[in-house]
Write a structure and sequence with these properties.
11-stranded antiparallel β-sheet; 11 strands; 18% helix; 48% strand
Length: 177
């Protein structure tokens, strides 16, 4: 149960907040032009709205949340765990979900895994696909997403460091956060 708690608290929610992708496995390039600052804002706004999947008991998982400007998000998928490993495969369905600056209306698939050695936890998630986005200033289209997020934390790690590698909406999002 300790690994499940660590994964939930330290990992998959934070990984999902980095950005997202749809269930489509072949990302396309951007058809809506967003600046790097807009991609960061989109990631923060949409990521903060995503409900945490219920990871209490391994098996199927589901959760839902209302979006502040209207619409909703639901999360369905699977979660498995042993005393040393965990995997997550969740599809987030955005139903005209409105944040402060963006509306998202497409599915988003998050896949991740975690391994614990007892003294450290390593996690990785791959994000690939296409996200449909409408901006508050009237722009709309798709953003191709193709990146990986990973981290390793120890028992005394207060603020985990996440390594991100890839692109979102045509913007390089690689770096350490």
């Amino acid at each position: 149960m300790r690994l499940q708690s660590l994964v939930c608290a330290s990992g998959f929610a934070a990984l999902a907040c980095a950005f997202g992708c749809s269930g489509h496995e072949n990302p396309t390039g951007p058809t809506v032009s967003l600046s790097q600052a807009e991609v960061v804002t989109l990631a923060g706004e949409v990521g903060s709205l995503m409900p945490s999947p219920n990871l209490g008991t391994p098996g199927s998982t589901n959760a839902s949340a209302a979006c502040p400007g209207g619409g909703s998000i639901s999360a369905t998928g699977s979660y498995s765990a042993t005393s040393t490993t965990a995997t997550l495969d969740v599809t987030y369905a955005f139903n005209s979900c409105k944040s402060t600056h963006y509306t998202v209306s497409s599915p988003l698939r998050v896949r991740g895994s975690a391994t614990s050695t007892g003294t450290q936890l390593s996690m990785q998630a791959s994000f690939k696909g296409t996200v449909a986005v409408s901006t508050s200033d009237g722009r709309s289209g798709n953003c191709g997403v193709d990146f990986t997020v990973s981290t390793t934390v120890g028992q005394s790690t207060a603020n985990p460091v996440y390594t991100i590698s890839g692109t979102a909406c045509g913007v390089n999002v690689s770096g350490t956060r």
